[in-house]
Amino acid sequence: MIITDLRALLAHNMKKRRHDLGISQAKLAEKVNTSAHYIGQIELKNKFPSPEMLERVASALEIDSPQLFSMESFPGETLRQFQKEILEEMETAVIGVFSSRMSDLDKQG
Question: Is the pTM for the entire model greater than 0.70?
């Protein structure tokens, strides 16, 4: 599912930027007025923040919010694996829709 991929991008970029700035989850949580547990859940891909929270996180990390979803910080191999997974998910979805449609047509005809 694509949302999983967005969660992975967000988690990776938050952690990397937080480490680059030398701040803990607790410090980031304090800056964005939330709990360290919630920040941890985002970085573990268990939670996905609201648009407002994304803006606060980006501001605290001193970046623009779209950078939270940038693929630029991924190592080459990780990026290739990520792209492969997205393509596989798309292929599965297209085959599923196509198969369902073909089945519907067979029933009609």
Answer: no
